[in-house]
Amino acid sequence: MMDMGQYLEIFIEESKENLQNMNQSLLDLENNYGDKNILNDIFRVAHTLKGMSSTMGFSKVASLTHEMENVLQALRNNEISTSEKIIDLLFECLDILEEYITEISNIGDEGDIESDHLVKKLNNIMNADTELVNQENHSEEIAVSSNEVIIETEEFSRNIVEKAVQEGYSGYRIKVELNPNCMLKSARAFIVFNTIERDCEILKSSPSVEDIEDEKFDTSFELIILTKIDEGELKEELSSISEVESVIIEKIVLKEYNTLAEHSETETETKQDMDMEDNADEEEDKKQSKTKKPKVGKTVRVDIDRLDNLMNLVSELIIIKTRLEDIDDDGRKQNMNEAIEYLERITTSLHDAVMKVRMVPIERVFNRFPRMIRDLSKELGKEISLFMSGEETEVDRTVIDEIGDPLIHLIRNSIDHGIEDPQTRKRLGKPDAGTVKLIAYPDGNSVVIEVEDDGQGINIERVKAKALEKGIITKDQSDAMDEKEAIHLLFHAGFSTADKISDISGRGVGLDVVKTKIESLGGIVEVQTIKNKGSKFIIRLPLTLAIIQALLVNIGLEKYAIPLNSIKEIITIKTASIRKVQNQEVVLYRNHTLPILRMGKILNVDRKEPEKEDLIVVVVKKGDKTAGFIVDSLIGQQEIVIKSLGKFLSGIKVIAGATILGNGQVALIVDTNSLF
To answer: 413 an active-site residue?
Structure first.
């Protein structure tokens, strides 16, 4: 039997892509009920999913998509009209299909999720006449006959029939006709066999199994089976297989078996010794094996040109390796210098190429939001328009996997807390429909994502009052606090301005989850707000989490790396110019107060030399905040590979990771965000 597990990863990836396409098409259909092209697109996706899931043996997905096909076919043929009710039902089916694919991804099986209620709704959505028409139309594709048939005595052996009668089995003769254009007939026949063998025993095949495997048949074959499932179920399972042109099922009456079995001769020896108990044990083993989590890797679809470029660069590396080996004593130094320069160019190009291979469009995250906006606007009774821009902006695959949840939280927050209800908007002279903008764009070595709404903005006084009520700040702090500091309170753990817990914007958790996740990715989040005009959340993320440009510095006897994208400038200050304000060292620099942090004390590094009169300060930024880090000396800028500290050291706040330098030494990477 062919092992389908090797195709699981491809199945999951392609199913997710197909479901996303279906989601987008359903959203388009909602705005244009009569568009046949959109209906055709949805039908094609359902048909593809049905075929793929049947091939993989996922019957629940196949069954649901088959029923969806019936409704979509009726819509395409104008037998029923597209309505909000039908679209809502198709969205429900889409949600269940997504749950099935998630379960398959996690445990290798569809799990216990049931879709019978949706199948019933799909059947009920058409009236009796329409159902009859559908059945007639569908019969052109899958023909089913309930004719009874008597099989020649040599078809069976006595003990098989007797055991079948005792166990309550029924018999069927099945004729399967494949599509004349089917490219891989034996593979398609295998899928039919595989589907039937889940619930049935195949007694005889014509032509033989060997001939079918060798494609020694035209487009049809016959099977005689024993099963406990009824004809209807059997029809459902077989009709869900793609490239099957027709299926004719004839039931064999068991009393005929008994009559015929008395005179039968043994022909199928392999089936005579069939043991029902062993078969039950095999089924149990199959169930247990499905509970084991499959190994599903994270994949990236890569343009072939990028892979070609990567291959060329690896070839160049092999050439330079040979060149380095062949350098002789004559002109050794000059040749070596040239070779090293050449090697440096190649490794830089190789880094860029690998970066591009890892990059995927942020569209993969953005695609989920139109549906979410649709559902939330219905749930909250608000009209909301979503404007998306920059979906083609590319970010690292690791960032893509992590950024989805923070964006969901921010969008839900904008819709629930930001955008007013239609009556309030009308009173304020705003359009009835609120607008949420989701914009992405590259900015140097960073990617910026903006979530903006045209709602009521953040009520600064309300934020202060809530913080005061929760004991986060004192009355004096509240009075002295400016707008930016007050907005920063939104990111305090457990802070929320909601009077009651809501399922929409996060059950009163606040925005601390968003801040934590963004900072764990090496990014920052900023907020801009204008009362009754709206709010904007700005997320700035590094392009990649693997290789970064950093400034290497000496602190005491240790070397540290500070990410270059967080550095504003490097200055020198006089020791005498440092002052203390509320127990915090500061210096006046360019008419602004600059907080000073002594990195030697923070990192607990031993210092042997006395403090110099002139201090080197690395000015680091986080959003609109700045701070000066005192270091002993600068080593220089260098491209470094970030290495994780491992789970045992994961709780260290000041350190983001480590890197190995050219001389083999380890340098720790400073997490500048955690020091603000």
So the answer is: yes
CA-based end-to-end distance of the chain: 61
- Give me the pLDDT at residue 439, please: 92
Q: Which of 23, 413, 565, 673 is catalytic?
A: 413
Cα separation, 547 vs 510, whole angstroms? 32
Active-site residue identified among 17, 21, 47, 103:
47
Is the pLDDT assigned to residue 14 strictly greater than 60?
Answer: yes
The answer to whether the beta carbons of residues 346 and 317 sit under 8 Å apart is yes
Q: How far is CA 344 from the centre of its chain?
A: 36
Using alpha carbons only, what angle is made at residue 155 by residues 151 and 157, rounded to the nearest 5 degrees?
120
Q: Is the pLDDT score of 40 beyond 70? A: yes
Q: Burial-class residue 203 by CB neighbours within 10 Å (0-12, 13-18, 19+).
A: buried
**What is the maximum span of the chain, computed from C-alpha positions, in angstroms?**
113
Q: Is the pLDDT of residue 140 over 50?
A: no
**Residue 459 among the catalytic residues:** no
Which of 13, 69, 201, 519 does the annotation list as catalytic? 69
CB 203 within 8 A of CB 283: no
The token pair that represents 624 in the structure block:
């609109």
Q: Is the dihedral angle over the CA atoms 86, 87, 88, 94 positive or is it negative?
A: positive
Q: What are phi and psi of 375, to 5 degrees?
A: -65, -40
Is 201 tagged catalytic?
no
Q: What is the mean pLDDT of the chain?
A: 76
